[in-house]
């Protein structure tokens, strides 16, 4: 049962080999044993989970089960879920019990899925290593000295350690793909607007996008089927006919045009990562794909542009945490301004404060044109780079991160070093494109390495097809850490 995929568990439930209560109990017991060493969860609620599993079993007994009814899952602690604490990894929301459900939560509940718990994450999703959580760093299940990647490190670590078959996550600049890569699991960041942001605590609204992390591409497709869909409560939610994201999984890759951006295979890429990518590309060529040399000339501008735009949006989004309406409030203060100041000084961690300061600065009168406007222009150039690349190829392949997972503490003192981790992931968010990470190998010391697949807008089914075919011809995604 432990290593079963979402697909397999759904089949076992459908054939009544196992009940949802049995599955939930199995995973909760495993979480109870392993979470003390991994710190992948912020909230667990056994009674609530088992009650949801009982409802799922009753639905099945009544003949009303859908394909995912009774399957256990985990939500990143950024998704508001009624009756659950939704902290977003912050002291600011440590006392916040959500009174309502995010759209993603509503959709998963409607499918009959059972929430096992809420996963740990970088505070307000700011980070690349999951060391910024108020609840402490998450450990990488492959090597407890290593970071799991951020900001959805709890979700990725939980799937890797087989504490859940699947988890939700969010990606503003790489937070689904990076932890998926570092933990040896599969993650998909959809096209901006495919998954509703309603009830998903906002970091940088024009970049944030929810998506699944699972063992396989096939499971990501099934999970995206549940998560995606138009929602009038998110003004950037796209009104499109519903899609079956698993419809193309079995298509052969004959004639597929894979673009390899020169800029992604240049200096700065670790040699072990380069070797793993090389092997993966050869594997895909064997499956019938053709390789095309492409260029994304503005890649290196993605870091400065993103680290202006994301903090700018964060500084405005986070202004709502003022101690008045909900969340933390300082215990003692002289007057209203003192209350705001003390509340925010106590409630936010240092990376969040850094972003608020940078964001307020780049939006301020006199600096707006020089920084924010300039960054928006770069954003357009980056989107244009991809538009011309996709005239030559069907998908783009590259690394997810410059190296495999580094050690906890190795980069946390130097924010710029940390930001450089995001060089291969940020452009995708700036352009609003979909991106995936697929397990593709390991370093000599056993740390996972992911392969990034970038697609054109709304090409999720094609990307999942490429990933699934790769997974049919490789077994990296089936490896699990020994815990
Ligand atoms: N590492 C990036 C940041 O810290 C991206 C985080 C994310 O995707 N949520 O902003």
How would the blueprint of this fold be written?
Elements: H1 6-14, H2 20-38, E1 41-44, H3 46-61, E2 72-76, H4 103-110, E3 114-119, H5 153-160, E4 166-170, H6 177-183, E5 186-189, E6 210-214, H7 217-227, E7 257-261, H8 271-286, E8 290-294, H9 302-317, H10 336-347, H11 350-362, H12 368-389, E9 395-399, H13 415-420, H14 426-431, E10 435-442, E11 448-455, H15 460-472
Parallel strand pairs: 2-3, 7-8, 7-9
Antiparallel strand pairs: 1-3, 4-6, 5-6, 5-10, 9-11, 10-11
Helix pairs in contact: 2-3, 5-6, 7-15, 9-11, 9-12
The protein binds glutamine.
Notes on the structure:
With 483 residues, the chain is α/β, with parallel strands linked by helices. The chain has helices spanning 6-14, 20-38, 46-61, 103-110, 153-160, 177-183, 217-227, 271-286, 302-317, 336-347, 350-362, 368-389, 415-420, 426-431, 460-472; strands spanning 41-44, 72-76, 114-119, 166-170, 186-189, 210-214, 257-261, 290-294, 395-399, 435-442, 448-455. The protein contains 15 helices and 11 strands. A hairpin with a 5-residue loop joins strand 10 and strand 11 (448-455). It has an 8-stranded mixed sheet with strand order 4-6-5-10-11-9-7-8, with helices on both faces. The chain has a 3-stranded mixed sheet with strand order 1-3-2, with helices on both faces.
């Amino acid at each position: 049962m432990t290593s079963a995929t979402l697909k397999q568990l759904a089949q076992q439930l459908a054939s009544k080999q196992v009940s949802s209560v049995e599955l939930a109990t199995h995973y909760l017991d495993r979480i109870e044993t392993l979470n003390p060493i991994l710190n992948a969860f912020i909230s667990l609620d056994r009674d609530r989970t088992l009650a949801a599993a009982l409802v799922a079993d009753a639905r099945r007994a009544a003949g009303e089960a859908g394909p995912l009814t009774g399957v256990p899952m985990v939500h990143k602690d950024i998704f508001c879920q009624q009756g659950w604490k939704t902290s977003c990894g912050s002291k600011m929301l440590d006392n916040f019990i959500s009174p309502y459900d995010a759209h993603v939560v509503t959709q998963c509940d409607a499918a009959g899925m059972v929430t096992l718990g809420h996963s740990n994450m970088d505070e307000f999703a700011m980070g690349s290593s999951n060391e910024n959580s108020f609840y402490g760093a998450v450990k990488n299940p492959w090597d407890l000295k290593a970071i799991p990647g951020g900001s959805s490190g709890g979700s990725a670590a939980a799937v890797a350690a087989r504490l859940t078959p699947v988890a939700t996550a969010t990606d503003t600049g790489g937070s689904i793909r990076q932890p998926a890569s570092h933990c040896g699991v599969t993650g998909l960041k959809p096209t901006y607007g495919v998954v509703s942001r309603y009830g998903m605590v906002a970091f940088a609204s024009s970049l944030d996008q929810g998506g699944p992390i699972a063992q396989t591409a096939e499971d990501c497709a099934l999970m995206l089927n549940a998560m995606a869909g138009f929602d009038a409560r998110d003004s950037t939610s796209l009104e499109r006919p519903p899609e079956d994201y698993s419809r193309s999984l079995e298509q052969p890759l004959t004639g597929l045009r894979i673009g390899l951006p020169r800029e992604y295979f240049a200096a700065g890429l670790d040699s072990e990562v380069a070797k793993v990518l090389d092997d993966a590309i050869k594997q895909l060529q064997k499956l019938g794909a053709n390789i095309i040399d492409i260029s994304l000339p503005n890649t290196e501008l993605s870091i400065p542009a993103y680290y202006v735009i994301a903090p700018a949006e964060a500084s405005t989004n986070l202004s709502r945490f003022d101690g008045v309406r909900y969340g933390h409030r300082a215990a003692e203060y002289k007057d209203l301004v003192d209350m705001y100041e003390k509340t925010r000084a106590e409630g936010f961690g240092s990376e969040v404060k850094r972003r608020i300061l940078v964001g307020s600065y780049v939006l301020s009168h006199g600096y707006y044109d020089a920084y924010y406007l300039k960054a928006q222009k770069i954003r357009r150039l980056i989107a244009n780079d991809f538009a011309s690349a996709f005239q030559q190829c069907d998908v783009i392949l590259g690394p997810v991160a410059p190296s495999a997972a580094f050690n906890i503490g190795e980069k946390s003192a130097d924010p710029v070093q940390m930001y450089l981790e995001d060089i291969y992931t940020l452009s995708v968010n700036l352009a609003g494109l979909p991106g995936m990470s697929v397990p593709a190998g390991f370093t000599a010391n056993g740390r996972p390495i992911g392969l990034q697949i970038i697609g054109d807008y709304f090409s999720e089914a094609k990307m999942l097809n490429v990933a699934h075919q790769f997974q049919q011809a490789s077994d990296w995604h089936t490896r699990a850490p020994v815990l």
